[in-house]
Write a structure and sequence with these properties.
By secondary structure, the protein is α+β, with helices and mostly antiparallel strands. The chain has four domains: 111 residues, Uridine Diphospho-n-acetylenolpyruvylglucosamine Reductase, domain 2 (2-Layer Sandwich), CATH 3.30.43.10; 112 residues, Uridine Diphospho-n-acetylenolpyruvylglucosamine Reductase, domain 3; 113 residues, Alpha-Beta Plaits (2-Layer Sandwich); 86 residues, Alpha-Beta Plaits. It contains 17 helices and 17 strands. β16 and β17 form a beta hairpin. The protein is globular and about 70 Å long. The structure holds flavin-adenine dinucleotide, D-malate and zinc ion. Zinc ion binds next to loops. The site of flavin-adenine dinucleotide has 38 residues, from β3, α5 and β9.
Amino acid sequence: MLGVMTVRDDKIGQLSRLTATLVGVLGRDHVLTDPDLTASYTVDWTGRWRGQAAVVARPASTAEVVAVLQACLAFQVAVVPQGGNTGLVGGGVPADHGSGPDDLRLVMSLVRLGRLDPVDAAAAQVTVGAGVTLAALQRHVAASSTGLAFGVDLGARDSATVGGMVATNAGGIHFVRHGGMRQQVAGLEVVLADGQVIERLRGPAKDNTGYDVPGLLVGSEGTLGIVTAARLRLVAALPFRVTALIGVAGTAAAIELVTALRRHVPALEAAEIFYQEGLELVCRTAGLVSPLGSPLAGRWRAYLLVECAGADDTVTDQLAQCLATAGVDDEATAVATTPKGRQNLWAIREGHTEAVNRLGVPHKLDVSLPLGALASFVPAVHQAVAGAASDATVVLWGHAGDGNLHVNVVGPAPDDYTVDDAVYRLVAEMGGSISAEHGIGRAKIPWLHLTRSGADIGAMRAIKQALDPTGRLNPGVLLPPEELLG
Ligand code: FAD
Ligand code: MLT
Ligand code: ZN
């Protein structure tokens, strides 16, 4: 019985026995130890976060996840859960091995957990495996012809998995209407650190029996358990969509318009912001053309990408009416209602992540501010970055409807935290959050105390201690080491 085995071997012996055990469970093809094969699992999407994995294990069922976890417990190996590896805070890639006998790390890739249950039209819910990508989930629900859709969408849809999105409590472009992953999760199947399985996939929609244990896993970033399946709420699929790119004078004008849209356009589904320099960068690097003319002409400092969705084209009238009342010029607006036209507008917004990565390894600082503070935050953050790294390139964009800005800084070395520190301190001073939707990961631990009290962090640590007393799950992610606690 693996769970009671005690291992006192050296690392090589430990590793070869672990590998043999895993091969027995998963088969040779799904236990990777060759550095050429494990390499892509040990570096993140941005290239800022990298480390070492002794083994990559690829279980395909809940029972296999249990077996892998029990082997890791027995051989005292840390487990780094990984989905699509699109996370942007280093939470899904291992750090370097430590020097101690129990410091080996195993990446548990969950992408083979591909369960797709039929859509439950009566409940407006669906159960899917943790390894299902967002795009596959969207296709599955659309193909069910139930008139339902999934409420969360984001640019990494082709790779990001349901398990990763649950674990990061992902937000995305429709948050302004439907909220993020926390609002969509009706239940989870979770393998706890000791191999026990909690299954909350079948219960009635209304159930207030005790603690919401699966709910704790949402946003836990792989530190409390492995999500193996999710029961997800669905929303009404809205067949008519209108998308508009709107040039505005700056952040204050953008927020004024977003406030009006939120108040007067119930069909509002996305309200995204980006700036002249981001638009110019995306157009230059991706060969796109802005329908509002050259971004360098300098007419508009900021741009909103707004989408409304409804049963029919009355949503276009709602949007047009609101824009007219707000005094937005026709020539400041490009509108699309066809799939191709809308896709062209979205390509400009969604091209930002890739375009910035091409400039160098970015410091990706995902923050949120109270909406009323956003206009003064923007010049202040440019000043803060200039003070910390005068040669840095700063590109801002984000989800304006949620007060969520992505501050991207290219120039400082990946392990230079001066800019990160300056930005997070500014955010905290202005009443914001250091993590809006990407999570804490390895990237933000030193600043957790800026927006979470000692009591708050202590409660999180108590939960971690209760569910993962040996600290096998994703060590070095989310929670600060004890000595950082004030
Ligand atoms: P991974 O990156 O593999 O892992 C992320 C975290 O979840 C890690 O801590 C990992 O340990 C943990 N984890 C993964 N799977 C499991 C599991 N089954 N059980 C337990 N823990 C697990 N994010 C947004 O919120 N909004 C956006 O709009 C958005 N857009 C993006 C656009 C691009 C182009 C890119 C590259 C990223 C974007 N992201 C966005 C970030 C990223 O897509 C999300 O954080 C996503 O939720 C990560 O999913 P993943 O499967 O790739 O997880
Ligand atoms: C986005 O909104 O573009 C994503 O969160 C990804 C990013 O910040 O690069
Ligand atoms: Zn985002």
